[in-house]
Amino acid sequence: MSDFSGLALVIEPGDLLARLDACNLILVDLTSSARYAQGHIPGARFVDPKRTQLGQLPAPGLIPPHAALEALFGELGHHKDAVYVVYDDEGGGWAGRFIWLLDVIGHKHYHYLDGGLLSWLADGLPVSTEVPASAGGPVSLTLHDEPTATREYLQSRIGAADLAIWDARAPQEYSGEKVLAAKAGHIPGAINFEWTAGMDQARNLRIRTDMPQILEQLGITPDKEVITHCQTHHRSGFTYLVAKALGYPRVKGYAGSWGEWGNHPDTPVEI
Protein backbone atom coordinates (compact mmCIF):
# COMPACT_ATOMS: atom_id res chain seq x y z
CA MET A 1 0.00 0.00 0.00
CA SER A 2 1.26 3.47 -0.86
CA ASP A 3 2.42 5.75 1.92
CA PHE A 4 0.13 8.30 0.28
CA SER A 5 -3.00 6.17 0.09
CA GLY A 6 -6.08 7.88 1.44
CA LEU A 7 -4.82 11.40 0.77
CA ALA A 8 -6.70 13.82 -1.45
CA LEU A 9 -5.12 15.16 -4.62
CA VAL A 10 -4.31 18.42 -2.82
CA ILE A 11 -2.17 17.93 0.30
CA GLU A 12 -0.78 20.13 3.05
CA PRO A 13 2.90 20.63 3.99
CA GLY A 14 2.50 18.42 7.04
CA ASP A 15 1.23 15.56 4.87
CA LEU A 16 4.36 15.76 2.73
CA LEU A 17 6.76 16.26 5.65
CA ALA A 18 5.61 12.98 7.19
CA ARG A 19 6.28 11.16 3.90
CA LEU A 20 9.50 12.73 2.60
CA ASP A 21 11.31 9.42 3.03
CA ALA A 22 8.71 7.34 1.19
CA CYS A 23 10.52 5.02 -1.21
CA ASN A 24 8.05 5.59 -4.05
CA LEU A 25 8.00 9.41 -3.81
CA ILE A 26 9.10 11.55 -6.76
CA LEU A 27 9.06 15.16 -5.58
CA VAL A 28 9.06 17.71 -8.41
CA ASP A 29 10.01 21.38 -8.03
CA LEU A 30 8.70 23.68 -10.80
CA THR A 31 9.87 27.01 -9.43
CA SER A 32 12.95 28.44 -11.19
CA SER A 33 16.59 27.41 -11.27
CA ALA A 34 17.50 30.41 -9.07
CA ARG A 35 14.77 29.71 -6.52
CA TYR A 36 15.64 25.99 -6.48
CA ALA A 37 19.31 26.78 -5.84
CA GLN A 38 18.41 29.01 -2.90
CA GLY A 39 16.70 26.13 -1.17
CA HIS A 40 14.05 23.58 -2.04
CA ILE A 41 12.06 20.91 -0.27
CA PRO A 42 14.54 18.12 0.60
CA GLY A 43 14.76 15.50 -2.12
CA ALA A 44 12.97 17.60 -4.74
CA ARG A 45 14.08 17.33 -8.35
CA PHE A 46 13.98 20.55 -10.36
CA VAL A 47 12.14 20.57 -13.66
CA ASP A 48 12.49 23.72 -15.73
CA PRO A 49 8.87 24.65 -16.51
CA LYS A 50 9.86 25.31 -20.13
CA ARG A 51 10.48 21.56 -20.49
CA THR A 52 6.76 20.95 -20.02
CA GLN A 53 5.97 22.90 -23.21
CA LEU A 54 6.79 22.60 -26.91
CA GLY A 55 8.01 26.18 -26.85
CA GLN A 56 7.50 26.98 -30.53
CA LEU A 57 5.33 29.77 -31.92
CA PRO A 58 2.49 30.29 -32.52
CA ALA A 59 1.42 27.73 -29.90
CA PRO A 60 4.27 27.18 -27.42
CA GLY A 61 1.93 25.45 -24.99
CA LEU A 62 1.54 22.33 -27.10
CA ILE A 63 2.96 19.11 -25.68
CA PRO A 64 6.72 18.54 -26.07
CA PRO A 65 7.99 15.86 -28.45
CA HIS A 66 7.47 12.28 -27.28
CA ALA A 67 11.22 11.66 -26.98
CA ALA A 68 11.67 14.80 -24.87
CA LEU A 69 9.03 13.59 -22.41
CA GLU A 70 10.64 10.15 -22.22
CA ALA A 71 13.97 11.79 -21.42
CA LEU A 72 12.43 14.09 -18.79
CA PHE A 73 10.57 11.34 -16.97
CA GLY A 74 13.63 9.10 -17.18
CA GLU A 75 15.66 11.73 -15.37
CA LEU A 76 12.99 11.83 -12.66
CA GLY A 77 13.11 8.05 -12.18
CA HIS A 78 9.59 7.44 -13.41
CA HIS A 79 8.06 4.02 -12.72
CA LYS A 80 4.53 2.65 -12.53
CA ASP A 81 4.38 2.68 -8.72
CA ALA A 82 5.78 6.18 -8.28
CA VAL A 83 3.79 8.77 -6.37
CA TYR A 84 4.47 12.28 -7.60
CA VAL A 85 4.15 15.35 -5.41
CA VAL A 86 4.49 18.55 -7.41
CA TYR A 87 4.85 22.15 -6.34
CA ASP A 88 5.84 25.58 -7.61
CA ASP A 89 6.04 29.04 -6.08
CA GLU A 90 3.29 30.80 -8.04
CA GLY A 91 0.10 29.18 -6.78
CA GLY A 92 -0.10 26.13 -9.01
CA GLY A 93 0.18 27.07 -12.69
CA TRP A 94 3.27 25.09 -13.62
CA ALA A 95 2.50 22.38 -11.07
CA GLY A 96 -0.99 22.00 -12.52
CA ARG A 97 0.44 21.75 -16.02
CA PHE A 98 2.76 18.99 -14.80
CA ILE A 99 -0.24 17.15 -13.38
CA TRP A 100 -1.86 17.46 -16.80
CA LEU A 101 1.29 15.90 -18.27
CA LEU A 102 1.02 13.04 -15.77
CA ASP A 103 -2.53 12.49 -17.00
CA VAL A 104 -1.24 12.56 -20.59
CA ILE A 105 1.26 9.76 -19.82
CA GLY A 106 -1.47 7.81 -18.00
CA HIS A 107 0.03 8.06 -14.52
CA LYS A 108 -2.62 8.54 -11.85
CA HIS A 109 -0.61 8.61 -8.61
CA TYR A 110 0.02 12.26 -7.86
CA HIS A 111 -0.58 15.08 -5.42
CA TYR A 112 -0.24 18.85 -5.41
CA LEU A 113 1.28 20.64 -2.43
CA ASP A 114 -1.27 23.37 -1.69
CA GLY A 115 0.46 26.74 -1.73
CA GLY A 116 3.63 25.08 -2.93
CA LEU A 117 6.96 26.32 -1.67
CA LEU A 118 5.30 29.38 -0.10
CA SER A 119 3.17 27.33 2.29
CA TRP A 120 6.13 25.04 3.08
CA LEU A 121 8.33 28.01 4.03
CA ALA A 122 5.52 29.72 5.95
CA ASP A 123 5.24 26.62 8.13
CA GLY A 124 8.95 26.88 8.93
CA LEU A 125 9.77 23.52 7.35
CA PRO A 126 13.29 22.55 6.24
CA VAL A 127 14.84 23.24 2.85
CA SER A 128 17.93 21.83 1.19
CA THR A 129 20.44 22.90 -1.45
CA GLU A 130 21.42 19.33 -2.30
CA VAL A 131 20.67 18.36 -5.91
CA PRO A 132 19.64 14.73 -6.48
CA ALA A 133 21.48 13.00 -9.31
CA SER A 134 19.60 12.24 -12.51
CA ALA A 135 17.80 8.96 -11.97
CA GLY A 136 18.44 7.46 -15.40
CA GLY A 137 17.96 7.43 -19.14
CA PRO A 138 14.76 7.66 -21.15
CA VAL A 139 11.73 5.58 -20.20
CA SER A 140 9.06 4.28 -22.55
CA LEU A 141 5.83 6.26 -22.31
CA THR A 142 2.42 5.87 -23.90
CA LEU A 143 0.67 9.18 -24.46
CA HIS A 144 -3.09 9.43 -24.03
CA ASP A 145 -5.38 11.81 -25.88
CA GLU A 146 -8.16 12.09 -23.29
CA PRO A 147 -6.69 14.88 -21.09
CA THR A 148 -6.15 17.20 -24.05
CA ALA A 149 -8.54 19.12 -26.27
CA THR A 150 -7.23 19.78 -29.75
CA ARG A 151 -8.34 22.86 -31.65
CA GLU A 152 -10.42 20.67 -33.94
CA TYR A 153 -12.13 18.95 -31.03
CA LEU A 154 -12.90 22.20 -29.23
CA GLN A 155 -14.23 23.76 -32.42
CA SER A 156 -16.54 20.78 -32.91
CA ARG A 157 -17.93 21.17 -29.38
CA ILE A 158 -18.67 24.91 -29.36
CA GLY A 159 -22.27 25.53 -28.41
CA ALA A 160 -22.81 22.14 -26.78
CA ALA A 161 -25.08 22.31 -23.73
CA ASP A 162 -22.79 20.05 -21.73
CA LEU A 163 -19.60 22.08 -22.39
CA ALA A 164 -17.97 24.73 -20.21
CA ILE A 165 -14.93 26.55 -21.61
CA TRP A 166 -12.91 28.00 -18.73
CA ASP A 167 -10.75 30.90 -19.92
CA ALA A 168 -8.07 31.50 -17.28
CA ARG A 169 -6.63 34.65 -18.89
CA ALA A 170 -6.87 38.19 -17.60
CA PRO A 171 -10.19 39.99 -18.20
CA GLN A 172 -8.44 42.41 -20.60
CA GLU A 173 -7.33 39.48 -22.77
CA TYR A 174 -10.79 37.93 -22.67
CA SER A 175 -12.48 41.19 -23.68
CA GLY A 176 -10.07 41.82 -26.53
CA GLU A 177 -8.65 44.96 -24.95
CA LYS A 178 -5.23 43.29 -24.63
CA VAL A 179 -4.17 41.55 -27.84
CA LEU A 180 -1.57 38.77 -27.74
CA ALA A 181 -2.33 37.08 -31.07
CA ALA A 182 -3.53 37.94 -34.58
CA LYS A 183 -7.09 37.94 -33.28
CA ALA A 184 -8.43 39.44 -30.06
CA GLY A 185 -11.26 38.31 -27.81
CA HIS A 186 -12.29 34.87 -26.65
CA ILE A 187 -13.64 31.52 -27.79
CA PRO A 188 -17.43 31.75 -28.28
CA GLY A 189 -19.24 30.85 -25.07
CA ALA A 190 -16.09 30.83 -22.93
CA ILE A 191 -16.39 31.82 -19.27
CA ASN A 192 -13.64 34.03 -17.85
CA PHE A 193 -12.25 33.44 -14.37
CA GLU A 194 -8.64 34.53 -14.09
CA TRP A 195 -6.33 31.93 -12.59
CA THR A 196 -4.97 34.09 -9.75
CA ALA A 197 -8.50 34.86 -8.58
CA GLY A 198 -8.69 31.23 -7.47
CA MET A 199 -5.76 31.60 -5.08
CA ASP A 200 -6.11 32.64 -1.44
CA GLN A 201 -3.67 35.52 -1.00
CA ALA A 202 -4.00 35.30 2.78
CA ARG A 203 -3.06 31.60 2.87
CA ASN A 204 0.15 31.51 0.82
CA LEU A 205 -1.67 31.06 -2.51
CA ARG A 206 -3.53 27.93 -1.48
CA ILE A 207 -6.56 27.09 -3.60
CA ARG A 208 -9.56 29.05 -2.35
CA THR A 209 -11.90 26.92 -0.26
CA ASP A 210 -14.97 28.50 -1.89
CA MET A 211 -14.02 27.43 -5.43
CA PRO A 212 -16.96 24.97 -5.66
CA GLN A 213 -19.43 27.79 -5.02
CA ILE A 214 -17.63 30.17 -7.40
CA LEU A 215 -17.63 27.66 -10.23
CA GLU A 216 -21.27 26.79 -9.61
CA GLN A 217 -22.21 30.46 -9.94
CA LEU A 218 -20.18 30.74 -13.14
CA GLY A 219 -21.84 27.70 -14.68
CA ILE A 220 -18.63 25.64 -14.68
CA THR A 221 -20.30 22.61 -13.12
CA PRO A 222 -19.32 18.95 -12.69
CA ASP A 223 -22.06 17.72 -15.04
CA LYS A 224 -20.29 19.41 -17.96
CA GLU A 225 -17.15 18.69 -19.87
CA VAL A 226 -14.70 21.39 -18.80
CA ILE A 227 -12.08 22.55 -21.28
CA THR A 228 -9.69 25.12 -19.87
CA HIS A 229 -7.12 27.32 -21.56
CA CYS A 230 -5.10 30.52 -21.35
CA GLN A 231 -2.47 31.76 -23.83
CA THR A 232 -0.04 28.82 -23.53
CA HIS A 233 -1.73 26.36 -21.10
CA HIS A 234 0.45 27.54 -18.25
CA ARG A 235 -2.05 29.64 -16.30
CA SER A 236 -4.72 27.09 -17.17
CA GLY A 237 -2.54 24.45 -15.55
CA PHE A 238 -3.94 25.88 -12.32
CA THR A 239 -7.55 25.78 -13.47
CA TYR A 240 -7.09 22.23 -14.79
CA LEU A 241 -5.74 21.29 -11.34
CA VAL A 242 -8.65 22.93 -9.53
CA ALA A 243 -11.25 21.10 -11.60
CA LYS A 244 -9.43 17.80 -11.08
CA ALA A 245 -9.09 18.43 -7.35
CA LEU A 246 -12.83 19.08 -7.11
CA GLY A 247 -13.53 15.73 -8.72
CA TYR A 248 -14.88 16.98 -12.03
CA PRO A 249 -15.11 13.82 -14.17
CA ARG A 250 -14.52 15.37 -17.61
CA VAL A 251 -11.65 17.85 -17.70
CA LYS A 252 -9.40 18.67 -20.64
CA GLY A 253 -6.61 21.17 -21.12
CA TYR A 254 -6.56 23.00 -24.44
CA ALA A 255 -2.80 22.94 -24.87
CA GLY A 256 -2.80 25.09 -28.00
CA SER A 257 -4.70 27.75 -26.06
CA TRP A 258 -5.10 31.29 -27.41
CA GLY A 259 -1.67 31.15 -29.01
CA GLU A 260 -3.12 28.64 -31.44
CA TRP A 261 -6.77 29.74 -31.52
CA GLY A 262 -6.04 33.44 -31.87
CA ASN A 263 -3.60 32.88 -34.72
CA HIS A 264 -5.61 30.38 -36.73
CA PRO A 265 -7.51 31.66 -39.79
CA ASP A 266 -10.57 29.46 -39.31
CA THR A 267 -11.39 29.89 -35.61
CA PRO A 268 -14.43 31.88 -34.46
CA VAL A 269 -14.00 34.55 -31.79
CA GLU A 270 -16.22 36.73 -29.64
CA ILE A 271 -15.35 40.17 -28.33
From TrEMBL:
Q: Which InterPro entries match?
A: Rhodanese-like_dom, Rhodanese-like_dom_sf, Thiosulfate_sulfurtransferase, Thiosulphate_STrfase_CS
Top-level taxon of origin: Bacteria
UniProt cross-references to SUPFAM superfamilies, sorted A to Z: Rhodanese/Cell cycle control phosphatase (SSF52821)
Q: Where is the Rhodanese domain?
A: 21-129, 159-270
CDD domains registered for this protein in UniProt: TST_Repeat_1, TST_Repeat_2
The record's annotation in Pfam families points to: Rhodanese
For this UniProt record, give its keywords in alphabetical order, as a comma-separated list: Repeat, Transferase
PANTHER family, A to Z: THIOSULFATE SULFURTRANSFERASE
> What protein name applies here?
Sulfurtransferase
* Phylogenetic classification of the source organism: Bacteria, Pseudomonadati, Pseudomonadota, Gammaproteobacteria, Pseudomonadales
